[in-house]
Input
Amino acid sequence: MIDLILDTTTWALLIAGGLLLLITGLGLLRLPDLYTRIHAGGMADTLATFLIFVGLALQSDDIFVTIKLLMVIVFVFFTSPTASYALAHGSYVAGLKPQLDGFGPPDAHADDEKKDAP
Amino acid sequence: MLRAVSLFLVLMAVWLLLSGHYTPLLIGFGIASCLLSALIAWRMAVVDHEGHPVHLGPKIIVYWGWLLVEIFKANLDVAKCVIFPAKYLRPVMFTTKVSQKSDLGKVIYANSITLTPGTVTVDLDNDTVMVHALTEASADGIKNGEMDRRVTAVMGET
Output
């Protein structure tokens, strides 16, 4: 019984993590410039990593393997924002301007929600 | 000196958790290597409030829990943005105040902003931080200053 619950939870976590990685890949191709693509990459670094490693940690019989898998999450969470900052700061210092307009009116999405509501 | 002892204890705990082999010989090697590492770090004078921030204590654990929930919510927002860019994608760039005094507090705040998808720290100055946000909503999440307040509370600078 407990095995079934663990297996189902692992499946759900791995599928959710894999789906997020797929969306990350889509975002890297689809978003317009470097700064917005960093945001897409951030999904793979944070929630996708978290879901996949927690899912794997549930499957190990050895407590030490579980601890090691969970520590990987901690290390990735410490290092990945530093790498993202280095990339964003480097591009900013080198003079790359973020693309900020040409995305339609700022309140477009509020209007859409009003139209959807009734 | 007290900090070096505490660094040795933390190193030893990590060694015991990661090793899994508990024979006298291997534990002896573990103690020797942790002692050597702590000694070298102490001689290099890198065991200070930045290198071994043990004074943050349990408050930082509570903050990580809150941050994890924020990361979860922000991930769903960014995923929405990638799937429907025409509807949600509105990038903005803005500067905001940093209220932490110490370098460590500023780094924790700036890294927390970057760790939350949808907002990336682009530049960190003395008391301002430049942020690139994917949507107006994620920008408002930084501008309302809740994360800033929480990091300041963790640092004990109020």
Observations:
- Chain B touches chain A through 38 residues (CB under 8 Å).
